[in-house]
Design brief:
This protein has 340 residues and is of the alpha+beta class. The protein is 44% helix and 22% strand. The longest helix has 18 residues, at 169-186. 42% of the residues are buried.
Length: 340
C-alpha cells in the first residue's frame, strides 16, 4: 500500500480525533502551511510547492490548554519559535516525524512523544504519512502546578526532557488523559466549556507533566516526608467542600501546606489510598446521592458527567464495586419511589 492511500484511509475511513473541530481539509500545501499555528510562532517550509496530498487539521482551545490534530502526507519543515507561553507535547498516532532541540534530534512516533519546554526553539520535520496530536499546556498552569506540588516558588525556568516515553506509566497516563479529553470533546452532547469532566482532565495534563515527566525540578519533587494528621484532614475537608471543582494534586498539596509527594505518602498512611482516589470516592458518593433523589427526567449519564466521570464503563464498574449495585439500579429504584 502506498503512502497516499494510507493517509487517505486515516482521513476518510477511520476518521480523526477532534472531528467536531476540523478547521482545515485541503490539498493546497501553502494553505496547510499557513494554517498550522496552534500555540507558538511557526515558520512552515513546504519542501515542494507542488505537493498536493490531502491534509486535515483540527483545533480546539480550552481554558488553559489547546489541542490540535493533524493528519498529513505532505513533506514539511516546521520551525517553532521560542515563547514562554506554553509547553507543547506532540504525540504520534501514525507514521513517523522528527523533532530537534538544541542540536539533538529525536523521533516522534507511537512510542516516543516530543516535549518542547516554554522558551525553547524547536524544529519539526514531517516526511510522508504522519498523524499526531499537539497539546499546548500554558506555562502559567505548568508553573502554578509545579509550585503547588513543590510547596515553594520556582525561579529558574522549567526545562523538560525532550522526549516522553509512551511505554512508561507517566507517558501512558498522559496519552490516556489526552485521548479521554478528545473523546469527550467529540461527543455531541458535551458542552466542553462547562463540563467538569473536561476541565478535570485538562487540569490533569499539567499535573502529569510536572509529576510524571522528568525536568530540572524532578529531584525536588521526589523528596518525601510526613504530613501531620491535621494537614491530611485539611486536604480531606477541602475535597469534600470542593468536589464539584476541577481539583489537581497541586491544589490539594497547597491546601495541606506540604509537597505533593508528602501528601501522597501521608494519604496512603492514613487512608490507604491516594488523594485523587479519595476525590473519586467522594464524587461517587455525590453521584449516589443525586441518583437517589432523582426525578423522572434524570439519567445516569447526566449525573456521572456532572461529577466529572467521562469513561462510563469504568464509572459503572467503580460505582458497583463501592455500592453493590449498578448506577442504573439505583436510579430505577429512586424513580419507582417518586410519588405521582
Amino acid at each position: 500500500m502506498s503512502e497516499i492511500p494510507q493517509a487517505e484511509m486515516a482521513l476518510r475511513q477511520r476518521g480523526q480525533l477532534l472531528g467536531r473541530f476540523v478547521c482545515l481539509e485541503s490539498s493546497d500545501v501553502s494553505e496547510v502551511a499557513e494554517k498550522i499555528s496552534w500555540s507558538r510562532p511557526h515558520r512552515i517550509e513546504p519542501v515542494s510547492r507542488r505537493d498536493s496530498r490531502l491534509s486535515r487539521l483540527s483545533y480546539v482551545r480550552l481554558s488553559e490548554t489547546s489541542i490540535g490534530s493533524l493528519t498529513t502526507n505532505m513533506t514539511l519543515r516546521d520551525r517553532l519559535g521560542a515563547t514562554d507561553a506554553a509547553a507543547i507535547v506532540i504525540i504520534g498516532i501514525g507514521g513517523t516525524g522528527e523533532h530537534s532541540v538544541g542540536g539533538a534530534s529525536f523521533p516522534i512516533d507511537r512510542r516516543l512523544a516530543a516535549v518542547h519546554s516554554p522558551g525553547r526553539e524547536a524544529n519539526l520535520n514531517i516526511s510522508g504519512y504522519f498523524e499526531a496530536l499537539s497539546i499546548s499546556v500554558s506555562r502559567t498552569s505548568v508553573v502554578r502546578e509545579l509550585e503547588k506540588c513543590l510547596g515553594r516558588a520556582i525561579h529558574a525556568p522549567i526545562e523538560f526532557e525532550p522526549t516522553l516515553d509512551m511505554g512508561t506509566m507517566g507517558g501512558n497516563a498522559f496519552r490516556q488523559a489526552v485521548f479521554n479529553i478528545c473523546k469527550s470533546l467529540d461527543h455531541p452532547g458535551v458542552a466542553f466549556q462547562t463540563s467538569l469532566a473536561v476541565r478535570h482532565l485538562e487540569r490533569s495534563l499539567a499535573t502529569l507533566l510536572v509529576v510524571s515527566h522528568r525536568h530540572n525540578y524532578t529531584r525536588l519533587m521526589h523528596r518525601a516526608s510526613k504530613a501531620g494528621p491535621w494537614q491530611v484532614q485539611a486536604a480531606g475537608e477541602f475535597i469534600h467542600a470542593n468536589a464539584a471543582r476541577p481539583l489537581s494534586l497541586g491544589d490539594l498539596a497547597s491546601v495541606a501546606g506540604v509537597s505533593s509527594r508528602t501528601l501522597q505518602y501521608s494519604f496512603h498512611r492514613h487512608y490507604g489510598i491516594s488523594p485523587m482516589d479519595f476525590l473519586r470516592d467522594v464524587r461517587l458518593t455525590r453521584v449516589r446521592e443525586d441518583l437517589m433523589s432523582a426525578d423522572h427526567e434524570t439519567t445516569v449519564s447526566q449525573v456521572a458527567t456532572r461529577w466529572g466521570f467521562y469513561h462510563f464503563g469504568r464509572f459503572a464498574s467503580a460505582y458497583r464495586k463501592r455500592n453493590g449495585e449498578s448506577p442504573s439500579d439505583t436510579l430505577r429504584r429512586a424513580k419507582a419511589n417518586i410519588k405521582t
